[in-house]
Structure formats: C-alpha cells, structure tokens
Amino acid sequence: MFKNHEFSVVSSEYLVESPILGLRRDTVVMPGGTQASREVVEHFGAVAVAAVDEEGRVAMVRQYRHSVGQRLLELPAGLLDIAGEDPLEAAQRELVEEAGLAAASWTVLTDVMNSPGYCDEACRIFLATGLRSVERPESEDDEEADMSNQWVSLAEARAQILRSEIMNSIAVAGIFAASEVLAGRGSGRPADCPFPARPMRLAQRREAAGIAPDMKRLPSQP
C-alpha cells in the first residue's frame, strides 16, 4: 500500500557542528501521514585505496580508532574535506601520505555507504597497481604518527576478514572487490567515473559559510 511513499522532509534543525561532521534532526512524513524525527550525521565522504603490488600483497595501515578503543588494520584512506578536491586526487594524496606509495594505474572498485541507518557517509574505494615507493611528507597529526604499515597477501587478508581480524568495513569491501577484479571475475570502473553517492550537504554548507579550502576549520578552530 505504501510502497511508493515519498519520505518528504517537513523541517530540519542542526544540533551539532564539529570539524569533521554535522548532526541534524529532520522531521519526516511517514507512510500513513504521521511525522517522525530522524537524526542524520552529515559527513564529507571519503576515499580509500586497495594498493596491490606484483606479488599480490595489499598495503595496509594499522590505526588507532578512539570510538572503538582499538588499533584496526585498514586500507589507506581519508576524508574528502578539501573544497573542490577530486576523489581520485584525494586518493592519490592519501596513498602517498599514509603508505609512501604512488601508482601507475587507478580503477574504481566500488562505492560503499558505511552506516546508512544514521549517517550519509559514502566511501569510494580505488584499486591502485603499478606501485612505486615515494617519500612520505612529514605529518603534523599526532594520530597519524602512531600509524604503522604492513603488506598482507590478498589471500591472507581474506582469511583475516573471516577471522574478524580485519573488521573495518571499507577494508572488507575493498579487499574482496580487489580480489575479484584481479582474479578476472569482475571489472572495475574508470577512475574518473561519477560518484553519485558522495555526500554533499555538509561540504556545501561549509563552503557557503566561507570555510574553505580546509572545510574542517570551523571559525572557533585555530
């Protein structure tokens, strides 16, 4: 009966503005005509890189994640928090900064929505091959200074996922997608293909307020 219902928004209010996210509450028209509140975490979106060398190893980083109180094994990744930055350019930058690598070939593996129950975050995951080592820039971020790097074979990475030793959802998707493409069981997409899932609401609001190019720099931030 309500299959084609349009969940229209009656009103919105912003509850929190922090450097890397916003929180708003929407009043939404539900099937049957009632109204309900839905909180939405707004995000800049992100990119991640499954960088695979000629030996079939994927470059991984181990990073502390305070929300879960653990160091997780992840793919090199980062926010789309620079105004106007292209996702491919962001991925290339993150691969240099976090892994000290550059790549000759780039392909889109997949786009994932990390937590659509409450957050609009989407991440574009690239496959990078034809790798070479490059100098990593000095990091001013204390958290990044704690990162460690390691190479893991794709076969071992898949086994670690099934043992819940790799639990970052972006890494899970990227490792399995890279395995499928490199085994010839699937195809990637051009590195510059459209990214319709990329969240824009937070970025557009920050840019309209003149918070650019670094959209994390709120007026109260140094």
The largest sheet, given as strand count, sense and whether it forms a barrel, is: 5 strands, mixed
CATH architecture of the domain at 46-190: Alpha-Beta Complex
Q: Please give the share of residues in helix.
A: 10-25%
Widest β-sheet, arrangement of strands: 7-4-9-8-11
Write down the Rg. Answer: 19 Å
CATH domain class of the domain at 46-190: Alpha Beta
Straight-line N-to-C gap: 53 Å
- Spatial shape: globular
CATH topology assignment of the domain at 46-190 = Nucleoside Triphosphate Pyrophosphohydrolase
Unreliable stretches: none
Question: Taking all residues together, what is the mean pLDDT?
Answer: 94
DSSP strand tally: 11
CATH homology group of the domain at 46-190: Nucleoside Triphosphate Pyrophosphohydrolase
The helix-and-strand class reads alpha+beta
Beta percentage is 35-45%
Helical stretch tally: 5
> Could you give the order of the helices and strands?
EEEEEEEHEEHEHHEH
Plain-language structure description:
This protein has helices at residues 87-99, 142-145, 154-162, 169-182, 201-208, and strands at 9-18, 21-29, 35-43, 46-51, 57-65, 70-74, 77-79, 101-113, 122-133, 148-153, 189-190. It is α+β, with helices and mostly antiparallel strands and 222 residues long. It has a domain at 46-190: Nucleoside Triphosphate Pyrophosphohydrolase (Alpha-Beta Complex). A hairpin with a 5-residue loop joins strand 2 and strand 3. GO terms for molecular function: hydrolase activity. This is NUDIX hydrolase.
